[in-house]
Amino acid sequence: MLDLGCGKGAVSVKIAQKLRVKVKGIDLIPEFIGFAAQKAKEWGVDALCEFAVGDINEAVKTETVYDCVIFGAVGNVLGNPAETLTKLKSTIRDGGYILMAEAYLPEGSNGENIKYDYEYLTESQWMELFKEAGLELIESDFREGSANLSSDSGMAAITARADELTTKHPEKKDMFEGFVRNQQNEYDDIENNLVCVTWVLRKIQ
Prior knowledge:
By secondary structure, the protein is of the alpha/beta class. It has a single domain (2-145, 194-203), classed as Rossmann fold (3-Layer(aba) Sandwich). It has 7 helices and 7 strands, in the order βαβαβαβαβαβααβ. It has a 7-stranded mixed beta sheet with strand order 3-2-1-4-5-7-6, with helices on both faces. β4 (66-72), α4 and β5 (92-104) form a beta-alpha-beta unit. α4 runs parallel beside α5 (123-133) and α6 (152-168) runs antiparallel to α7 (173-192). Mean pLDDT is 86; it is low at 144-150.
C-alpha cells in the first residue's frame, strides 16, 4: 500500500499492524516522517513500514503497481479533482484500489457559503469524474459535519502551536496566522456546508 501525504504515519502504522501488509508513506515534512518511523518501531511494524520524505507530485511519477493507494484528506496538493484521480490511478495496478477521504457539496449547492479556498464538487460531479477516470466506486462511508474536527480544543491546539512557531520565526508571522485562519474556515465548512466521505474505488481500466 502507498500512503501519499502520510503525515505522522497514523494510518500507515495502523494498517500495517492490523492487516500485516507492507506500507510506504511519503510526506514533505521531515519531522513527520521521523515521527512515523518511530511509531512504526514502537508498534512493532517497522519491518512492514517504509517512510520517505518527498513531494507526492513527484512520487506519483515513479511509485507504481501498488495494490492500494491512500489519499487521506490532503486537499488539492495533486491538482484539481480530475488531476488528482489521474495521478492516484497511475500508482496502482489494474484492479487496484484507491482509498480516498474527501468532502463534497450537497446537491443543489453552488458553494457560495464556502470559506476555504478549495474546489469542492457535488457527489454527482464526483461520480461522473470516477466514470471518466475508469474507476468503480466499491464502498463509501460518509457523514454530514465533523464536530470533532471543529472542536474548540482542536483549534486551541492549532492556534497554540502557531503561536509557538511565530515566536521562533517572527518573520513568518503572516504565514502562520494565515494557516490558522484557513484551518478555522475549513472546519467551519466541514461543520456547516459539506458532507465528509471516504471512498473505496477500484481501477477498472
